[in-house]
Amino acid sequence: MLLALGVGAVSPGPSFMMVARTATREGRRPACWVALGMGLGAMLFALAALLGLQAVLKAVPAVYLGFKLLGGAYLLYLGGQIWRGARQPLTLDETAAALKPDAPRRDGRAFGLGLLTQVSN
């Protein structure tokens, strides 16, 4: 069991992949903002744990149901975006353009992407 935990601890997860992808496609600055957003998301989870979010969710089942519905709606939205984008065929020009760095997103958008990614995990 300790070996499995050790492998899991050193394996890159979705957060690492998001920051690495942003760094390679957009540059260092947006990747740093994504990482800061993820850090804030992790702090929010820790704060929620300290404030007893689990006790609140058990005491008020409607709040828990609301969180589940919002999370499900967000996953449906992401699935719809993927489904819609899958209809567009890739051409050689688009594939070559995908290998070029993207224009970096603004700092606030990169931060929001990191925060949303962390919170949705």
Short description:
Helix content is 83%, strand content 0%. The protein has 121 residues and is an all-alpha fold. It has one domain (15-120).
Describe this structure in words.
Helix 2 packs antiparallel against helix 3, helix 3 crosses helix 7 and helix 4 crosses helix 5. The protein is globular. It has 7 helices and no strands. It has 121 residues and is mostly helical.
What labels describe this entry?
mainly alpha, 121 residues, 7 helices
How many discrete domains?
Answer: 1
Compute the average pLDDT: 79
Q: What is the helical fraction, as a range of percent?
A: over 70%
Detail the poorly predicted runs. Answer: none
Question: What is the fold's blueprint, element by element?
Answer:
Blueprint: H1 2-10, H2 14-26, H3 28-50, H4 53-59, H5 61-86, H6 92-99, H7 107-120
